[in-house]
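Annotated sample (chain length 261).
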Amino acid sequence: HGRVKLHDAIKGSCNVFFYNTGMGAGVDELHKYASLFRLGKLTGVGLLNEKAGLIPSSSWKKRVFNEPWYGGETPSMSIGQGFIIVTPLQVINMINILANDGMWVPPRLFLEDEGTIPQQIPLNKEYLSLIRKGMIAVVNEAGGTARKVQFEEFTVAGKTATSQVISNKTMETLDEEAKLKKEFQNHAWFVAFGPAEDPEISVIALVEHGGGGSRVAAPVVRKILSYYIDNIYKPKSKKTVQTNFESKNFKFSTRLQMAFN
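Output written by the structure step:
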């Protein structure tokens, strides 16, 4: 398809675009911004045995393996593979930060639970907006990888992902029967939030050894969103005037910022 911009790279899930972007940024910049999105850290949700996962850096590799970071390791990191380890909760936490325009609201199991105060993360809001628009295109534009999640009057933003379980090199050593074994199939991911213009729900699905995110995980998320839209969601009137701080028609991210500034 030739050269593409960020919007189309997100929409079509173009790995090569992110290989090149990651190579330009370098491992430690990737580590810095992944950490700002709370990856590689406990979410603090209160679950026993929660894992922090891993976002590698050059110093981490030197400390653990006594080896330098090699440039050839950066492309796989750029698409969330290689040494990276994340939990579904961490990924949805990251997406919530994006949907809330950089505001981190610590996850909790129960509304009455007391936790860390929400905080604004120092991220470029113009860049966050570009990413959100790309995720809207994933679901709502021709060529998007999750068109099946589109709803007529509820704009969904989403992203498909497929996590490789074994390397292509290893796969080539297997016979045809072994290649079909479930434990060698990729993990399927899909994450979404909506309505995109004022998000109030986010959903993630991870189907272990399910194959492609678009084919397997996206339909799971669609079913959850469909239930939400049919039974819980209350569309806001476009004519309603925003009159005060308590107005339910302020964007959720705006109300968060006003509450905690």
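Annotation: Residues 239-246 have pLDDT under 50 and may be disordered.
Annotation: The chain has one domain: 6-231.
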